[in-house]
Amino acid sequence: MKSNIILAGVGGQGILSIAAALGTAALEDNLYIKQAETHGMSQRGGAVVSHMRISDKPIASDLIKQGTADLILSVEPMEALRYLPFLSETGYLVTNTTPFINIPNYPDYEEVMAAVKEQPRFVAIDADQMAKDAGNARSSNMVMLGAASPFIDIDFKMLEDGIRNVFGRKGEEIVEINLKALRAGREFAENNK
Amino acid sequence: MHKQLLLGVEAIGQGAIDGGMSGVYAYPGTPSTEITEYIQENKLAIERGLHSKWSANEKTAYETALGMSYAGKRTMACMKHVGLNVAADAFINSAITGVNGGFIVTVADDPSMHSSQNEQDSRYYGKFAMIPVLEPSNQQEAYDMAREGFELSEKTGVPVMLRITTRLAHSRAGVDCKAVLDENQTAMPQDARQFVLLPGIARRRYKSLLEKQAAFVKLSEGSKYNNYYEGEEKSLGIISCGIAYNYLMENYPEGDCPYPVLKISQYPIPEEQVRKMEAECDEILVLEEGYPLVEEHLKDFFGKGTQVKGRLDGSLPRDGELNPDLIAKALGKDTSTGPDVPGLVANRPPALCQGCGHQDAYEAMNEVLADYGKGHVFSDIGCYTLGALPPYETINSCVDMGASITMAKGASDAGLLPAVAVIGDSTFAHSGITGLLDAVNENANITVVISDNESVSMTGGQDSSAQGKIESICQGLGVDPEHIRVIVPLKKNHEELVKLFREELAYEGVSIIIPRRECIQRASRRKRNLKRHANH
Ligand SMILES: Cc1ncc(C[n+]2csc(CCOP(=O)(O)OP(=O)(O)O)c2C)c(N)n1
Ligand code: SF4
């Protein structure tokens, strides 16, 4: 198996928690991982991206080649579009629909969503609302991971374990909320891909 | 053994601990910061009582590490590339004094300037100082080199540089950790005079450094990190340095590169392998992250020798970091790409957080400085540098740490009045103090704003070494206490801030304004940690 995943968002949105849950799951599954992150200046509200690669064979590059990403997973709709050149011909775009507007020239929201929906394979999900429904607005990133899970060749159980691992020290309640968020995201994607 | 998922920087921290290091000395700087942070939080490092507190700047860090080496223990100094400029005097001379306990200087370069003012290549510094340089191609090598680098330093008698770049620093992969080595005992240097660089001794030491050069080349030629991979197709030979090797291999996923490949991860350049490639290949392509150091070295001035391709002939871009796509192009391979980025996608540059105290300071300054026109504010490096961008556009310079106070003084000497400096608390401690002394000694007409958020925020909120000491430092340097003014930068204090700026701009002499309010990111992190500890 081999998955090339672009994780996108805005500094402060916590895309690295998605990467951590996914990375832990892949490691438990005895897979090879490389995951390049953005640290530093951009974390101050700038565009941030993480290249995540999972494979059952050793991985050479820390960066994904253009046109070879199986998945763009974005927690913000405009950021999803920024990395389109990485998407492969059969790749999926999975994005949160809630915009993060911290610049004066943020484009027209309807046009952003239209550009998302122009893609041949996409899932657009209101992760913020779904996270609230699951019991905690801050679990939206796990909704997103759930929504992306049908397109990643990792046992879903492993992802659940990954969440238990990452959130375990915050207590059982937080773990349950995040698991609920994960499952809700997956169900939505299964029905709307 | 179970693999640990580590960032390149974390792998270096773990490797240094496992290699028997007794202390790390560092000043934060992206992408090097997490090496020290990792050691600060590591269980074994805490048990062993390894030194890991932040230093005031890279020069103090480097010299303190040298002192630890003098005393026989293994030590590491860490910094970002421009930090080595600050430590350069100590660095170059330490190659001449040599070391006692193993000394690794880890320098993290930032090609493409993700979080930096330039993309200088530290390998040139290594060459300049004439010491061995290690450049890992992956996280495992980063770990191994940190763990084994102390021994290399002790064997060669000089500091060893470990050079990484942003991508490796901030990319995670599984790393196999090896046995933990003991720390060294305290021991005097064998040569009692080696650290006394009086000309007579320095000449002798320098000669011995020169004499070691051939041995350093031999070490590179025999290094397990430098490998020559045979290839059938000799029309081209490829030299790949550090992480570029991975980008190259990404283009041959089945390991089927037809060309001979020389992987270089230890310098000086392994001459024997390079000669072999030159003898058997028609052309040589050099792939290196950073400046064209190897390429320049091999390129023949008169253009009569083997053709060398790379960043200088346009096969690769002259600047910026490499990636697998650029290397595919240099190899003439087909590159596919996904859909274009739609035109509506806007840039999203970093910005000050909403509610940040630097904002309140800039609001007030803009109101007061409107009377004088643009161009009067010299600044420095930190979150507050974002005040150069809209909506504030308050500041007019950002050059190197500490340059705000000194440039303001120079401009004031030239008659540009008012001359204002804006500097952060950590930057003030790093390099602002000596400049302020110059200004006080000449009673320069400048206004210095020390925007104190009680944190080193740009790099993630480390402790600032000036914490609680700024007023007394300024007074100690001779600033008139009546012109050291502290205020809390908050919206509700706007009028007061404006009044204070007006008064101090009017004063003819050195005045200090200290807007002081804790960085809100640091405050919320502090509260989260408190809560976490309370839960346990
Ligand atoms: C010589 C050098 N060392 C380190 C850095 C990295 N660096 C940039 S800004 C900064 C922190 C500045 O802290 P402070 O002055 O307190 O400002 P703040 O970010 O907290 O507003 C550091 C360490 C650098 N750019 N140059
Ligand atoms: S991190 Fe702190 S200092 Fe930096 S912009 Fe945010 S609040 Fe201001």
Automatic annotation (TrEMBL), chain A:
It comes from Sunxiuqinia elliptica. This is Indolepyruvate ferredoxin oxidoreductase beta subunit. GO terms for molecular function: oxidoreductase activity, acting on the aldehyde or oxo group of donors. PANTHER family: INDOLEPYRUVATE OXIDOREDUCTASE SUBUNIT IORB. Gene3D superfamilies: Pyruvate-ferredoxin oxidoreductase, PFOR, domain III. Keywords: Oxidoreductase, Pyruvate. Pfam families: POR. Residues 11-187 form the Pyruvate/ketoisovalerate oxidoreductase catalytic domain. It comes from the Bacteria. InterPro entries: IorB_Oxidoreductase, Pyrv/ketoisovalerate_OxRed_cat, Pyrv_flavodox_OxRed_cen. The keyword Oxidoreductase applies.
From TrEMBL, chain B:
Pfam families: POR_N, TPP_enzyme_C. Catalyzes the ferredoxin-dependent oxidative decarboxylation of arylpyruvates. Residues 380-481 form the Thiamine pyrophosphate enzyme TPP-binding domain. It is an enzyme of class 1 (oxidoreductase). Its EC number is 1.2.7.8. It comes from Sunxiuqinia elliptica. One of its GO terms (biological process) is small molecule metabolic process. Keywords: 4Fe-4S, Electron transport, Iron, Iron-sulfur, Metal-binding, Oxidoreductase, Pyruvate, Transport. Residues 15-180 form the Pyruvate flavodoxin/ferredoxin oxidoreductase pyrimidine binding domain. This is Indolepyruvate oxidoreductase subunit IorA. Its cofactor is [4Fe-4S] cluster.
